[in-house]
């Protein structure tokens, strides 16, 4: 008599946990699904050349999404990344073409490495401005980064009066050549940008898992008050995530202008939305505390492959937008369903135990 | 439960259980509410009274069990549902909109409208004025709620509940912020409601109050109902016995070790209140190594605020603190922890734990730097410390990688304590360490406190439980209204003296500021 219901609940529980596992792996399942679908539906989809090309596309969004992931885990949001991409591209282009005029009859030209470092510093600086606004002046992250979105975009347009910096080959006598390496160069058969992505992603994943800073990022997002009482330097953690996000955006700015050998001030418009979408698709919770770098990268791949595959199939770009939006909504709905299922499973266990 | 007097049962709870993530708040409770009578519900903090009332008021839904209203089974999907069936509630936490007027608050969600669905403010204010008149509070219906004193806000909350014209009216600690005169008026209103046949469920900590106005009494302990009687058959001692139980709290015995040198001293700690006045008013005290100093006080006495000042959580606090004779000049929490201070906060969920992280991550959150070489967390060292702490505090957890929210309240509290201990503190501040945890876990916590003091830690602990402070402390400090109003050695301390000291400055003066937080 007592046997049967016990078995029944056990099977309910095991089916619940199977469903839970499936839900947890949903981004992976989605990735495999889009890969399989397009390899059947789109000719040449699985060719090596196409895969590498797609990876280069995905990499751009993946960089931004990683920075965004840390920001969202702390409970914030960074809307300014797209504009930082544009501004950093313009900074790099300006330095290659014009150097810095010291106003005393000399102009300093930097070599490509120095230009890259300066550009990265600009990205980190804008991130620091975001961080200061949020931690010191208590501006809500949404508003603070919305402000810097406009400021950075405006500065990018001002830098060239809205024109493009073309033809960034540089001059050998000034030592400014070689800017194209980031975008077009290859190392061991793979594009340089992919290698950079691998390095930054491994670094970020390591940071999240094995360093106190990473642990603190999750703690701040999970419960800011408790973190503060436990001695976590909440403001420092927040400064870091926005600076890291700015750093990632600067990398993207460099890569894009290097690929095109030109800097256009409107580059990166609405990139922030793609980055948020990838992070959310990868399981990052907008309410903070949850998310992984690996998940975000997979999310970026799902979005990137989806849009490239649809282009290859000749689907209209209007339909692409509709489909992308639906995928994001479904992802979040499944995410919520998983939370509910999980908490119900634990509550049932506790009610039985206590 | 032998009573069969004239009062009919209007509402009946059968075998109700309620489980939250982390705690079982109510276990298999049976509870009857009688018409035209004051049904008193009493129990210690965390016994489950408020949860039970929220179930009746439709705010929470029971995990298991049945609710019978007039003999028919009902289930409320929202508090609106319960209101429609004639159940009103005065909440312990004020559920008012500070930015709206008194009249708008009273008629929130039941606005009086004209033919075009436009709110008829005139009519609302007229009706509101009638209810407020009954309460003799001198509150105008067009005043903004945020401009009222806490006590007056509580009266608005009561007026709102009365205006529902409810058949069952639940009052959760309605007098906690009222002056003596206001309490008298409330009692008159209650007598009036009773005469009209309204069933009143009344929750309070003040025993003398209960005995005065109650008709039936139900006692809760650790989520279970331990006694139900007619009020005329019981006395204070019976109530206390049911509340505490025969398996009376297991306070670990003192081992007679002598405290060492002074380890901590606070001088002239002050914290201004936003509304004016001081939340902590020139408090000075000193603590010796291996000593347990209990700080007793009522709600709003300033105990938690004192701890917050000591931990450096308030920039505007003043005063000086010393650890082992050296002044602590660091102002931020992180560096005060490094100097050897650690706080176990009162509100476990909001301030103690990061509920979505694992037990292990929570335990080491405050002490991560101990396990780091350069910037790498040494997993082995961390795991070892976690395992050791889990064993020392007997935290019941299958796997420390489990989310901390899956533990019971008592075990969660042990995790908070473990987190503080891993920082290697010299002084431990414990704010209501036994709040909302079951008897077994309480005993464990008390034993841990004894052991720590034996190991030479100085412990400051705040509590509003008289037994606890009497049984555990080497010395007892009493706070009232932000001031230190008494300091007793254990030998000379009597309950009467402590209670008297805790009431200083809480006189019947109607404008005493009482912090509801």
Can I get a quick summary?
The complex is a heterodimer of chains A (354) and B (517). Chain A is mostly helical and 354 residues long.
Strand-helix topology:
The complex is a heterodimer of chains A (354) and B (517).
Chain A: H1 3-24, H2 26-41, H3 48-73, H4 81-98, E1 100-101, E2 107-108, H5 112-135, H6 141-160, H7 181-184, E3 186-187, E4 190-191, H8 192-210, H9 212-222, H10 224-229, H11 234-260, H12 271-281, H13 293-312, H14 317-353
Antiparallel strand pairs in A: 1-2, 3-4
Helix pairs in contact in A: 1-14, 2-13, 3-8, 3-11, 3-12, 3-13, 4-5, 4-6, 4-11, 5-6, 5-11, 8-9, 9-11, 12-13
Chain B: E1 9-20, E2 23-34, E3 38-43, H1 49-56, E4 64-69, E5 72-74, H2 79-84, E6 87-90, H3 102-106, H4 121-134, H5 150-163, E7 168-172, H6 180-195, E8 199-203, H7 207-213, E9 216-221, E10 224-230, H8 236-244, E11 262-272, E12 278-288, E13 292-296, H9 303-311, E14 318-323, E15 326-327, H10 333-338, E16 341-344, H11 348-352, H12 359-364, E17 372-373, E18 376-377, H13 379-392, H14 409-422, E19 427-431, H15 439-454, E20 458-463, H16 466-472, E21 475-480, E22 483-489, H17 495-503
Parallel strand pairs in B: 3-8, 3-9, 6-7, 7-8, 13-20, 13-21, 16-19, 19-20
Antiparallel strand pairs in B: 1-2, 1-4, 4-5, 9-10, 11-12, 11-14, 14-15, 17-18, 21-22
Helix pairs in contact in B: 14-15
Count of DSSP strands of chain B:
22
**Uncertain residue segments of chain B:** 506-517
Provide the gyration radius of chain A in Å: 23 Å
Q: How would you name the oligomeric state of the polypeptide chains in this document? A: heterodimer
Number of β-strand runs of chain A: 4
The major pleated sheet of chain B works out as: 6 strands, mixed
CATH topology label of chain A: ABC transporter involved in vitamin B12 uptake, BtuC
CATH homologous superfamily identity of the largest domain in chain B: P-loop containing nucleotide triphosphate hydrolases
How many helices of chain B? The count is 17
Number of domains of chain B: 3
- Can you tell me the CATH architecture of the largest domain in chain B? 3-Layer(aba) Sandwich
- What's the rounded overall pLDDT mean of chain B? 83
Distance between the termini of chain B: 36 Å
Counting helices, strands and paired strands, the structural category of chain B is alpha/beta
What structural class do helix, strand and pairing data of chain A support? mainly alpha
Measured distance between first and last alpha carbons of chain A: 22 Å
Shape summary of chain B: globular
Largest pleated sheet of chain A: 2 strands, antiparallel
């Amino acid at each position: 008599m007592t046997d049967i219901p016990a078995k029944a609940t056990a099977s309910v529980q095991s089916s619940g946990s199977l469903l839970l596992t499936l839900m947890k792996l949903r981004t992976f399942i989605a990735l495999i699904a889009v890969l399989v679908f397009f390899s059947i539906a789109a000719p040449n989809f699985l060719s090596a050349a196409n895969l590498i090309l797609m990876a280069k596309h995905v990499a751009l969004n993946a960089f931004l999404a990683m920075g965004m992931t840390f920001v969202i885990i702390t409970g914030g949001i960074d809307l300014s990344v797209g504009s930082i991409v544009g501004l950093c591209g313009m900074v790099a282009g300006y330095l290659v073409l014009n150097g810095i005029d010291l106003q005393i009859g000399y102009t300093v030209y930097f070599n490509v490495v120095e230009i890259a470092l300066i550009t990265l510093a600009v990205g980190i600086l804008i991130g620091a401005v975001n961080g200061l606004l949020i931690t010191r002046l208590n501006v809500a992250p949404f508003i603070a980064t919305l402000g810097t979105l406009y400021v950075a975009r405006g500065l990018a347009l001002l830098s060239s009066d809205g024109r493009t910096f073309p033809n960034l080959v540089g001059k050998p006598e000034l030592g400014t050549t070689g800017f194209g390496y980031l975008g077009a160069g290859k190392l061991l058969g793979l594009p340089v940008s992919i290698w950079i992505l691998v390095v930054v992603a491994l670094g970020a994943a390591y940071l999240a898992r094995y360093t106190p800073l990473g642990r603190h990022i999750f703690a701040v997002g999970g419960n800011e008050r408790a973190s503060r009482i436990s001695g976590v330097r909440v403001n420092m953690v927040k400064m870091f995530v926005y600076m890291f996000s700015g750093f990632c955006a600067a990398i993207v700015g460099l890569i894009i202008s290097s690929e095109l050998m030109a800097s256009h001030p409107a580059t990166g418009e609405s990139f922030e939305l793609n980055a948020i979408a990838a992070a959310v698709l990868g399981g990052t919770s907008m309410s903070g505390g949850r998310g992984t770098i690996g998940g975000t990268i997979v999310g970026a791949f799902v979005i990137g492959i989806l849009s490239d595959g649809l282009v290859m199939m000749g689907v209209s770009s209007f339909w692409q937008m509709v489909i992308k939006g639906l995928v994001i909504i479904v992802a979040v709905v499944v995410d919520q369903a998983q939370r509910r299922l999980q908490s119900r499973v634990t509550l049932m266990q506790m009610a039985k135990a206590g | 439960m032998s009573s069969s007097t004239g009062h009919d049962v209007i509402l009946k709870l059968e075998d109700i259980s309620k489980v939250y993530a982390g705690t079982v708040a109510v276990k298999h409770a049976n509870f009857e509410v009688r018409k035209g009578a004051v049904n008193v519900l009493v129990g210690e903090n965390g016994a489950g009274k408020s949860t039970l009332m929220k179930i009746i008021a439709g705010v929470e839904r029971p995990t298991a069990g049945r609710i019978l209203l007039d003999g028919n089974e009902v289930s409320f999907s929202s508090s609106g549902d319960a209101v429609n069936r004639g159940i009103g509630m005065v909440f312990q936490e004020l559920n008012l909109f500070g930015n709206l007027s008194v009249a708008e608050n009273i008629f929130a969600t039941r606005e009086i409208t004209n033919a075009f669905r436009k709110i008829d403010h005139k009519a609302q204010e007229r009706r509101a004025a009638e209810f407020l008149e009954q309460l003799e509070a001198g509150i105008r219906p067009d005043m903004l709620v945020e401009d009222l004193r806490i006590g007056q806000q509580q009266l608005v909350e009561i007026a709102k509940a009365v205006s529902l014209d409810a058949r069952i009216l639940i009052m959760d600690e309605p007098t906690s912020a009222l002056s003596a005169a206001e309490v008298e008026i409330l009692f008159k209103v209650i007598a009036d409601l009773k005469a009209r046949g309204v069933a009143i469920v009344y929750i309070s900590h003040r025993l003398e109050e209960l005995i005065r106005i109650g008709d039936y009494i139900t006692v809760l302990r650790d989520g279970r109902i331990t006694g139900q009687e007619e009020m005329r058959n019981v006395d204070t001692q019976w109530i206390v016995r049911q509340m505490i139980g025969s398996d009376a709290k297991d306070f670990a015995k003192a081992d007679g070790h002598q405290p060492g040198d002074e380890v901590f001293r606070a001088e002239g700690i002050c914290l201004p209140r936003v509304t004016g006045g001081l939340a902590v008013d020139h408090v000075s005290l000193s603590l010796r190594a291996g000593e347990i100093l209990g700080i007793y006080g009522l709600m709003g006495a300033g105990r938690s605020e004192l701890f917050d000042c000591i931990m450096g959580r308030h920039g505007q606090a003043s005063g000086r603190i010393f650890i082992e004779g050296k002044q602590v000049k660091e102002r931020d929490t992180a560096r005060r922890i490094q100097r050897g201070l650690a706080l176990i906060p009162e509100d476990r969920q909001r301030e103690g734990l990061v509920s979505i992280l694992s037990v292990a991550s929570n335990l080491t959150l405050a002490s991560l730097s101990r396990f780091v070489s350069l910037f790498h967390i040494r997993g082995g060292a961390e795991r070892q410390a976690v395992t050791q702490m889990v064993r020392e505090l007997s935290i019941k957890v299958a796997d420390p990688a489990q989310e901390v929210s899956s533990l019971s309240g008592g075990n969660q509290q042990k995790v908070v304590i473990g987190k503080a201990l891993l920082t290697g503190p010299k002084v431990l501040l414990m704010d209501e360490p036994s709040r909302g945890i079951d008897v077994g876990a309480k005993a464990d916590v008390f034993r841990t406190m004894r052991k720590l003091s034996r190991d030479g830690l100085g412990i400051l602990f705040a509590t509003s439980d008289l037994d606890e402070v009497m049984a555990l402390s080497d010395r007892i400090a009493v706070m009232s209204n932000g001031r230190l109003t008494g300091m007793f050695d254990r030998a000379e301390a009597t309950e009467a003296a402590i209670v008297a000291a805790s009431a200083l400055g809480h006189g019947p003066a109607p404008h005493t500021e009482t912090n509801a937080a």
